[in-house]
Fold this sequence. Notes:
The chain has helices at residues 41-49, 116-134, 161-172, 184-193, 206-213, 226-236, 258-263, 278-293, 315-323, and strands at 2-5, 16-19, 29-39, 62-70, 82-85, 100-104, 108-110, 152-156, 176-181, 197-200, 218-223, 237-245, 267-270, 307-311, 329-333. It is an alpha/beta fold. The protein folds into two domains: 2-123 and 299-333, Medium-chain alcohol dehydrogenases, catalytic domain (Quinone Oxidoreductase, Chain A, domain 1, Alpha-Beta Complex), CATH 3.90.180.10; 136-270, Rossmann fold, CATH 3.40.50. It is globular, with a radius of gyration of 20 Å.
Amino acid sequence: MKAIVYERTGDASVLQLVDRPVPEPGPGEVLVRVAVSGVNPTDWKARRQWPLPAGWQTPGQDGAGVVEAVGEGVDRALIGERVWLWEAAWQRPWGTAAEYTVVPVRQAVRLGDASFDLGAALGIPFLTAHRCLTAGEYMPDKLHAGALSDHVVLVQGGAGAVGNAAIQLARWADACVVTTVSSAEKAQLAAAAGASFVINYREQDVVEEVRKIAPDGVHTIVEVAAAHNAAVDAQLVRHGGAVCVYADDGGAEVTLPIRPLMVHNARWQFVLVYTEPKAAKAHAVNDVAAAAAQAGIRVGQEAGLPLHHYSLEATAAAHVAVENGVVGKVLISTTDER
């Protein structure tokens, strides 16, 4: 099979297209013929600095494809199932930037008739967004239609992949979603994703505009730039509300006004999808799968998430695009089945 492999950390030039034997699924694992691999910021960050316990790594946490074989203890009825994959390369060498990969069976989720493009876009962004939408004291553990019908959610940076996922999931759960963006073009994307209100933070006062919509503040803030937005978030989180931070601004530090947040019993929740509690992860996988099955989440320009397709041979270019902050979702087509 063809696979992308790197044997040392570094820039995108370390990514090599190689021929490897098709891996055999071990006990509790499935072999998946990958159709589409999703690229996330975590992929280039891992490529630059994460250790290589196996001495090599195929990148790609997310993907979608068809189950080709199963290991010992796995129901053979899964063979032939279309699935989406999550955390394929987390503490494992077999990522999704390859024609085949192996994952534990619980990390291969039935996709049904949804597109492989959608399946490859679900993992990191949507599981992260789910955690951000369920970690607060006012928020439910699980999402479904109506779960957030009385809630106001603020998504800081609604045109990014996680921001888009948070908007779509929150709207699927019937929340009122307010989001911030930096341009008219990004405002169009956030509106397409389903945001109820879109605020251009370069032209409007975010605190003033959000207070018009939610005078008592918002239940949860999905935060991409905590160091930059901390003062705004502190003014907008309601009593008992939560600010859920999923990015680190390149290692920046956050300064918070303690007393106002104490008065509100506010929560600052830091989110890393890989290490979130197991129960929360299980809820996220189930809910995201349900939302996809119900057509509650989508991808593409019409969903506010433009798609950028690359071939397996062009994986290095795909990584560079993500590292340079391309707007939308970068996907690698590993076969012609997309």
